[in-house]
Amino acid sequence: MLESSKESLKLEAMKRVVGLIAKGKNASELFPAVVKNVANKNLELKKLVYVYLVRYAEEQQDLALLSISTFQRALKDPNQLIRASALRVLSSIRVPIIVPIMMLAIKEAASDLSPYVRKTAAHAIQKLYSLDADQKDHLIEVIEKLLKDKSTLVAGSVVMAFEEVCPDRIDLIHRNYRKLCNLLMDVEEWGQVVIISMLTRYARTQFISPWKEDGVFENSEKAFYESDEEKRKSAEETKPYAMDPDHRLLLRSTKPLLQSRNTAVVMSVAQLYWHLAPKHEVNIITKSLVRLLRSHREVQYIVLQNIATMSIQRKGMFEPFMKSFYVRSTDATHIKTLKLEILTNLANEANISTVLREFQTYVKSQDKAFAAATIQAIGRCATNISEITDTCLNGLVLLLSNRDETVVAESVVVIRKLLQTQPSEHSDIIKHMAKLFDNITVPMARASILWLIGEYCEHVPKIAPDVLRKMAKTFHNEEDIVKLQTVSLAAKLYLTNSKQTKLLTQYILNLGKYDQNYDIRDRTRFIRQLIVPSERGGALSKYARRILLAPKPAPVLQSAFKDRDRFQLGTLSHTLNSKATGYLELSDWPPMAPDQSVRNVEVAEAMKEWSPAVGKAKSSKSDDKFYSDSGEEEDEQAADSGSDEEGGSEGSTRTPVSLSSEAESENSETSEDSSQSEKSSDSGTGVKKTTTQKNKKLQQAKKPRKVRYTQSQALTISKLVSVCDRVCVCVCQQLSSPVFVPVHTYELLHRMTGKGLAAQYHFSRQPCIYDDRMISVQLTFSNNGDHTLENIHISEKTSAGQNIHCFSPIECLEPEKSVTVSMGVDFNDSTQAASFQLCTKAEGFNVSIQPAVGELLLPVTMSEQDFSKEQGKLQGMNESSATIAMTPESITSQPLHRKVVNMANVGVVPSGQNNVHRFAAKLVSSGALVLVCVVQKDSGAQLTVNTEKTIIGSMLLRELQTVLSQGS
Amino acid sequence: MIHSLFLINNAGDIFLEKHWKSVISRSVCDYFFEAQEKAMEPDNVPPVIRTPHHYLINIYRDKIFFVSVIQTEVPPLFVIEFLHRVAEMFQDYFGDCSEVAIKDNVVIVYELLEEMLDNGFPLATESNILKELIKPPTILRSMVNSITGSSNVGETLPTGQLSTVPWRRAGVKYTNNEAYFDVVEEIDAILDKSGTTVFAEIQGVIDACVKLSGMPDLTLSFMNPRLLDDVSFHPCVRFKRWESERVLSFIPPDGNFRLMSYHVNAQNLVAIPVYVRQNISFFESGSSGRLDITLGPKQTMGKTVECVVVTVHMPKVVLNANLTATQGNYTYDPVTKILVWDIGKLNQQKLPNLKGSLSLQSGAPKPEENPSLNIDLKIQQLAISGLKVNRLDMYGEKYKPFKGVKYVTKAGNHGHFVVTNWKLHNILASPFYV
User: Fold this and answer.
1) Which residues, numbered 322 to 341 in chain B, qualify as contacts with chain A under a Cβ-Cβ cut-off of 8 Å?
2) Euclidean distance between CA atoms A432 and A441, whole angstroms
3) How far does the CA of residue B13 sit from the closest CA of chain A (Å)?
4) Cβ B75–A268 below 8 Å, yes or no?
5) CA end-to-end span of chain A, whole Å?
6) What pLDDT, in 10s, does the model give residues A306-326?
7) Max CA-CA distance within chain B?
8) Which of A5, A284, A576, B208 has the lowest tally of Cβ within 10 angstroms?
9) Shortest Cα distance from B141 to chain A (angstroms)?
10) Mean pLDDT across A428-440
11) B48 touching A, CB under 8 A?
């Protein structure tokens, strides 16, 4: 039928196949016939084929590959549902060979316009990770990107992927923390659960404990720390606890979710409050948890378990709701037991009488296991609340006359435990139990009574030998456990009252000697050696009394939920009371508050910096301004982040180290560094030293962890960090990250000529992901018109010899919206413009990208020796040089460096001489080295460029000349 | 997350299995069967079972066990809640969630499960979205499909999936625009023999059936919102408005849904609508006992009490019951020891009475525990808490909808009214008085 030409027949056949799969029958021999239909137009048929494929692809990997091309085609389909489902199936086929294809598909889908497709991409990340864990680094990149996504649809799924792939990369969350908190209300409910539990872990590492003082809390949301100065001061003082505003934000944004209809959401909010909120605020979760008890049996079970754990620590929380925990006859046994547990935990002096009355009804329950559990609970109440011990004991003794064996047995056991805590006053109870002894048949109970009589035989001197006599008669009929206790009793009586019991004891010992059970024979032999004086065993028998009649510590009756709180509430591990696979420990509060500014996001400002650059002249101007404003601060910042890195362990990272001459260093830790910098700036000759220092710091800053940045430099530093992140991951060998990424954008298409469509481009100075020989260019499209533009794409590449990797077409662009895409261009190491046609659905525009010579490079790090060596090889034709006059301001190293790295994407080579500055890079396409050397002289500088590509060399020389001779 | 799902019937047959990741052999269910055997009754099966390599989380609903296989840490409630959603979805699609219905619609079930979970993580659980993706089966459609060959799978992505109101589908159109709200309240109470309330609480839900065209924005306000103590809402309800103004403002899903559930503050004394006079006693000598139960209405605010059913769980030694009922009829099942007395409507003039003798197993000692009575009832047109809907306003659409509110009071689903025997408390109580 599958081969049939008729759609309906095929569909019918496929339905039957799915029926087979559902029943668990093997349908794998149909694989070839089914796979043929993967490209069928009928959507239902297609879906059923997908179901089949996902089920059997793992078994038939080779045949499954036949279907891949269909999915690849479907990934480009204009219908987002089809794109998404293609990605879903592609990623669900667990065939290792297609990992690269999957990777590519995920990367592309992660920047898809449709949030639904991006959500699917987030799901696919986990699948790929479970298939091939080696892709972790690349996947983390995608996760990082998706975490920035603002769509509520994506948030839950990407956090799920985060939890699965890299739960320890907490640094990725920092900048998205506030966004996640604010979005939380609108995320779909399953996502909420995942996000909340992730944020719980996050908050435990990032905020200080709100539990330290139970006194006055300062919860107002005023700005917490005014400046770094103050911050440090307040950390040193014994300050009243003030909650971090972000911590408060989390609590506030989760609170409404307690009203969710989804029990899992309510539970996760409850655990968040339990683990994070100040003690006096936890109470708000009580009511919601009690509400969950109205839900299904299974839900009750989990919730009760969690309440049981909570109620041990905080009785007050649930006490007003005690009646909700009353057991009903229709409850399942495990629910009854849990309710009992909670009632026991909640019992205190004030309410014990109600609780006990309730317990009495339970004892009568037809469910005997439950009745037994109740008796244990009574025992626990009795030990916990000393006032009622006697009442409980009396009640339990009455229960001894109960007809049911289990009840009696349990009572005896509990009485034994209770008596052990205060034996002296209760000889009458022991007497009573001895009287009942004949009627009790449950072995455990009999054994308990025997033990009691033996232990306290001094309190009941008359009865004890009599009981032993009875036991001697029935010894051979008893259970093993009773026999053992009989032997013990005999031994103890022999020691205390040997006159009356000597013969009895010997008789019992003889019986025990020939018992079938080796345990009993062993015990008998041991006891005999111990107590009966003989020639050999004399040494030990002296101590027999002390061994057998030593005072024994009373047993502690405590809850089974006592130590459950080591697990995070609401987790599977908590339910099982053992670590489940993949359980993530909840960390303790940090002793000191980690830096809170990491969560600052200045997206708006970054956008501002990006947008106003229209046209080249203007852009360079704004660029200058950017420098004069924040260049110095940027240095500070880099240094700061560096010292953050160093001082991370000491925990004092507050003071920025300033390299500028005005700033005075206070930090003792880095005093060495700063004194150097002071010296250098004073003398004006120690430039080089500072340079190297700066380099060092910059390199440290490249490490992507915990980089602090304040508002004004948000852009620079964040870009630096994000670039570094990526570079650290994917660049090999001596390639280094760009020292600096300028922000200027160039115009590709003016909005007048583009009829509403404006396009700008920008060199991101990152290694291109498409091809090593390409330069990555970021294009920003914005729609300034008043109608939607559809299908923006690149149609023809007019320039020859230049390879262009196009961006994926933009489906539609609403008015007033803009979108950024990236493309790769191989300029072949020339400054010739890459021209192509940019098309919308309606029209095409001829545009070109003109690279500056400095953008054709990628920075390289090398040592000074290597630099000289390489320079030596590139003499003569390959060298071009010029002398330039420099303005006095640019004499110092910083402005010079800044100018050079701004103009060209070069790496700084550490230099041993103060007046020599070296930079190295390589050409992106050919990989040829480009070395730049600036030697400062009294009133000018000697500029040298060495490279194989002489044209590039001379162009670079010219550009540098103009840049350096300008005043800053 | 969720690896696999097995559906198992009471007889222990696995009649459906679905895997979202690699296939897990159905032998993993053996651990479940083991636990099931140990538990004796299906209700007693522990919801979380640990096996050497997996964890099994199961729910029992409509005589079907939904057993899911988990491999790593996940909040158990997450899985349980999801499984219940699955069961509800089946109910929604096929009318009832039974083995037969699932077997008959196995393809749709498979398609549903495929959409609801991706790689074990919930994808689409809103019934409105799912119904757009996969059309529910109707006789008419299946006939049309078999003739024309068209499919019942949606071709485009449901708009709800992308919008901020994922629960509502776009392009809804009705000729009659109607919105009905059912306020259903349940009383859960325990009374002692003298009729004193030991424990009572009222739980309510508002179930809605909204069939309105377009994108209506509704506002529902109450006369006395203070009554509501603890509430939980459908995601469509704007929580901010509730907090500030105590009104329910929402864009409703299409069709049937539960708008909110609430709890009425127990401090307000709950008016129990009936009273019971009962006397069950067993004689010390001779193996017999006597039973006498009378029911009467009380505080019903002029409404009739309907569907009254009294259930008594008799002690094991009761062999048979020989009773006469003045109204309705009774059955006694000697195996389960349950006496059911179906009364029907409560009559103010003539109070229903059940009287007669019980025969006990000869020689067995007299039962120590007097049985408790469970009473089930229903009152139309009345919300026992006194909650009243004030008005319903609609914004965003031009037509005038037909609106209706219905009130029902029921006995709670948990214990009903449990009338326990006060004597029972006294037997043991003496030594315990503090």
Assistant:
1) none
2) 16
3) 10
4) yes
5) 80
6) 998 888 888 888 888 887 888
7) 80
8) A5
9) 15
10) 77
11) yes
- Note the pLDDT of residue A556: 66
Indicate the DSSP class of residue B165: -
pLDDT tens profile A168-197 = 888 888 888 888 888 888 888 888 999 998
For A822-877, how does the pLDDT look when each residue is reduced to its tens digit (9 = 90+)? 788 887 777 777 777 877 777 778 888 888 888 888 888 777 788 888 888 877 77
Could you write out the DSSP letters of every residue in A548-578?
HTPPPPPPP---TTTTGGGSPTTSHHHHHTS
Q: Exposure of A499 by Cβ count < 10 A (0-12 exposed, 13-18 middle, 19+ buried)?
A: exposed
What residues 245-304 of chain A have any CB closer than 8 A to a CB of chain B?
256, 259-264, 266-268, 287-288, 290-291, 294, 296-299, 301-303
- pLDDT at residue B288, as a whole number: 80
Yes or no, beta carbons of B151 and A11 under 8 Å apart:
yes
The length of chain B, given as a count of residues: 434
Query: Among A4-8, A231-235, A453-457, A863-867, which stretch is predicted with the lowest mean pLDDT?
Result: A231-235
The answer to whether the Cβ–Cβ distance between B47 and A298 falls below 8 Å is yes
Answer yes or no: are the C-beta atoms of A963 and A888 closer than 8 Å. Answer: no
pLDDT for residue A66 is more than 60: yes
Q: Is the pTM of this model over 0.95?
A: no
Nearest-angstrom CA–CA distance, B108 and B94: 10
For chains A and B, count residue pairs whose Cβ atoms are closer than 8 Å: 255
CB spacing of A261 vs B232 below 8 angstroms:
yes
The reply to whether residue A261 touches residue B26, judged by beta carbons under 8 angstroms, is no
Reply yes or no on whether the pLDDT at A265 is more than 70. yes
Mutate to test the interface with A, among B73, B151, B229, B426 (most CBs of A within 10 A): B73
Report the pLDDT averaged over residues A523-544: 71
Residue B304 distance to chain A (closest CA, Å): 27
Residue B177 phi, psi (nearest 5): -95, 120
Return the closest-CA partner of residue A325 out of B364, B256, B414, B312.
B414
Q: Which residues of B touch A347 (CB under 8 A)?
A: none
Q: Please check whether residue B106 touches A, CB under 8 A.
A: yes
What percentage of chain B carries pLDDT values higher than 90?
A: 6
Q: What type of residue sits at position B178?
A: E
* Subunit contact B75:A15, Cβ cutoff 8 A: no
Q: Which distant-in-sequence residues (6+ apart) come within 8 Å of A379 by Cβ?
A: A392, A396, A414, A417, A418, A557
Sign of CA dihedral B2, B4, B5, B11: negative
Say how far apart CA B255 and CA B168 lie, in whole Å.
9
Number of residues that make up chain A: 968
- The pLDDT assigned to B57 comes to 92
Contact by Cβ (8 Å): B250, B282: no
Helix (H, G, I), strand (E, B) or coil at A734: coil
Instruction: Decide: A581 and A587 in contact? Cβ < 8 Å.
Output: no
A167 part of contact set with chain B, CB < 8 Å: no
Find residues 365-424 of chain B whose CB sits inside 8 Å of chain A. 365, 368-369, 372, 414-415, 418, 420, 424
Question: Per-residue pLDDT averaged across A697-703, rounded?
Answer: 46
Question: What sign does the dihedral A380-A386-A389-A392 (CA atoms) show?
Answer: negative
Residues of A in contact with B433 (CB under 8 A): 353, 391
The A residues from 866 to 925 touching B (CB cutoff 8 Å) are none
Q: What is the pLDDT of residue A527?
A: 82
C-alpha span between A817 and A855 (Å, rounded): 28
Percent of chain A beyond pLDDT 70? 77
pLDDT in tens, A20-45: 888 888 888 888 888 888 777 777 88
Query: Of all residues in chain A, what percent carry a pLDDT higher than 90?
Result: 2
Q: In this complex, do A328 and B125 lie within 8 Å of one another by their Cβ atoms? A: no
ipTM value, please give it.
Answer: 0.84
Q: Is the pLDDT of residue B261 over 80?
A: yes
